[in-house]
Each structure stands twice: as structure tokens, then as C-alpha cells.
Amino acid sequence: MAVHASPAAVSNRTLEAALSNNVLISVIDDDESVREATRGLLRSFGFMIETFPSALDFLGSPRLHQTSCLIADIHMPAMTGLELHGRLVELGHAIPTILITAYPDESLRARALSNGVICHLSKPFGADELLQCVHQALGQGTSTEGPS
Q: Is the pLDDT of residue 16 over 70?
């Protein structure tokens, strides 16, 4: 995943709020290269990032209750990103969620957004797109396909 953006791409207000409130963004993807690229990008903007190779690892982590925004791959073994989102809602811990996928599917996108997912991005996505979705998630914005 190529990610190129300047720090000016993210709103100063969002960044200041994230840093002052110790916002934690958790990234869950079974593809290590995507996890690390996403971690590096978001850290470069000052966000605290925790990564997990699976939904089950995240669910078993003490970081679950500290997470303010979740970025999860849709297609993962054992539990998909959409299933994870649903499980968190069932547990009463609905974390603003951004789903990412290398396999776009219109019906899955529509179902995710109707179930409260904040953003849906297709890989490869740009840094500006991801940062806009993070800003939206941290501000509890409305669901979207992703920035145009």
C-alpha cells in the first residue's frame, strides 16, 4: 500500500483532540504489510496506533476498551471485519469503524454502511482518504463509502 501525504492533510483540530485525549486507533489486518503501512502513516500524524493480525487477537486484548477508532480488513480468516463490528455492537462496545478491502463488493459495502460502519475503503486507498475517514470516525460522522 503506497501512502503519501503531508501532515497538512489532516485537520489540526482532529490531531490536537486526538493527542490531548490520548486517542488510540487499532488496526486489524491479516496482511502485515498493510498493517505496518497504516501504522506508519497514522503515527506520522501523531496518532497512537496498536495493530493486530486478527479480529480474535483484538477481542482478547486489553486495548479493546481503549480504542477510539477501529480500522479493520473485511476479509480475514476466522472473523471478518464486518463480523467484528457486529460483535462489538452486540457487546455494547460500538467503536467507530473503518472497513478496508482489496475485494470491493457493492452489497457488502451497503450492508456495512447500513450496520453503522463509518467508512468503507477499497485497497489501495490514499492517505488523504484514510485520514478523512479517521477524522470522520473521531468526530462520529455519518457513514460513507469513503472520500471521493
A: no
